[in-house]
Design a protein that fits this description.
Helix content: 40-55%
Largest sheet: 3 strands, parallel
Structural class: alpha/beta
Strand order of the largest sheet: 4-3-5
């Protein structure tokens, strides 16, 4: 017998609580082909990402547009944003400014965070 998502009880633990439970661990938390972070390292990077969002005055409770590829640092930024009540809106930097424009306008965000390789695209989007 299968149960639809609408009939399943709500989980008793949130995603952020699950991340926090593993945060002090030395067990692997992020693994890629080239690096591995423990739970402790992930939490440290997520805290740094939260500090960064504070430093750029990203409003709490508002979306933060992020032009990111799939990297461990992007995951740390997601955790840091969630921990500080910011909605990270990751958008693919492989799209053009004209493709991303309608998404950016619909989000009505005050801050765009970009990876170093995407700075020019971020500037184009910020001036729209």
């Amino acid at each position: 017998m299968t149960t639809s998502a609408a009939h399943r009880p709500a989980p008793s633990t949130t995603w952020l609580e699950l991340v926090s439970q593993r945060a002090g661990s030395d067990a692997p938390a992020v693994i890629t082909a080239t690096e591995m972070w423990t739970g402790r390292e992930l939490l440290a990077r997520a805290a740094g990402a939260a500090d960064f969002l504070d430093s750029v005055d990203a409003p709490v409770g508002s979306p933060v547009i992020a032009l990111l590829t799939s990297t461990p640092m992007a995951f740390a930024l997601s955790v840091g944003a969630a921990a500080t009540d910011r909605a990270l809106a990751p958008l693919g930097p492989r799209l053009t400014a004209s493709e991303l424009g309608p998404c950016i306008e619909a989000l009505d965000a005050e801050v765009i965070v970009v990876e170093p390789a995407c700075v020019e695209l971020g500037r184009q989007l910020a001036t729209r």
